[in-house]
Design brief:
Distance between the termini: 100 Å
Strand order of the largest sheet: 1-2-3-4
Order of helices and strands: HEEEE
Oligomer: single chain
Structural class: alpha+beta
Largest sheet: 4 strands, antiparallel
Number of domains: 1
Length: about 120
Amino acid sequence: MKIKRNGFLILENVISLSLIGLISSLVVSVLSTSIFCISRSYKSTEMLNIAKKEMCDIEYSIDNTDVEEEYSKKMIKDYEIDYKIEKSDKYYNCYKVDIAVRHKDKEVKLNSYVVKS
């Protein structure tokens, strides 16, 4: 008795197509999740860069002017920036600087001490 095998059976086709569909749906879900995480990470990085730039500007202004205490708010793009400068009583020419950058419901805080030279 001779058995002919000219091609796949219908069952083999259905199984292979379901495996391809399952694998492709997993790949698409992983890619969409990673794209979402990258966009959130980009906003956090941008907020941190803005806070660092403001810290450098404040350090420069403390070195070049007489600042005792200051509190200020300003907007850059969609970001709200609050900073507070307090003179430290314990140390000579030392200032505590607090910076907060907000965007919608997210906030990044940066705290530092600056010594006037």
